[in-house]
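Sample entry copied in:
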Amino acid sequence: MKWNARDWFGVWGGSTSWMIILACFLFWFHQPLLAALVAGCCICSNSVALVLWARRAKLSLYRANLLMLGVLAITVPLAWYSTMIFASTAALEAMNWPTSKIINIVPLFAAPLMALVLHFRLRPRLTDESDSQIPNTGGQRLR
């Protein structure tokens, strides 16, 4: 697998786009601090994605994906559970927030489970191809 802008930004933009909608709902329901927290999680996740994209010549796709999953393992539960705990009842009802315990456990384990799958199932394929696309500079820094 190789770096591809459509795939990279599609996955990470899609992984965080719900946070923008959630922040707008929270702001609409007069909860600006909670909306700012959720928007901050989105901005943090997408900023890391942009930095990793900018460093793609020096970083394998496998490692970049693991780093992004690590970031999402923090930002997704933070946005989800802070909303679940601190949002007003009116906001949660308007968003049709899930009340199922199973669904509310998913954000905690989704990114770590994807990282494990990536590591154990896809690592050989990703590291072989991705590491070979990193240019050998003989120890010199790329400019």
